[in-house]
Amino acid sequence: MLENLVRTAIRKENLDINYDGYTATNHFGWKYKVSIEQGESCFDVPYIKPLEQKIVLKTGCEVSDQGKYLAHSLAHELGHSETFFVTTPILALIAFAGLSKAYHEKCIKTFLYTCATVASYRLVVDEAVAEIAASVNHGTIMMDWRGDVSDIIDFSRRVIDLF
How much is the pTM? Predict the structure, then answer.
């Protein structure tokens, strides 16, 4: 049923995604098996396993239009599949250079900076590149960054309220 919602949303949004309900093909012609799972919490996010050629979409937390959300998530994950061969080597280079420098200097501070840089790269650069690829290759409208920032602030407030 969710597969039909995604296919309908792809047609309605006029997205350039080749999706038959079970597999999706990126612009290089690589096929990925797509499965849709029920998200257990707001922390469940869609992901891609490039080596297994598998994309797992998760239903959104507090999302009014699941089909549109899942279609855009699929485009974003396909964006990862089209850019991982560029972003992953850069990430490896950053990690190797930082860890090598930390080892030679025997400095824990350099090691911690490297860890922070790698995490920041994964959270910011890799996601931004995938979103740009989804926009350029699949016709999605790039994220509303102001909306996302306000969502992050709201989410942070909720987490703080837990304590």
Answer: 0.81
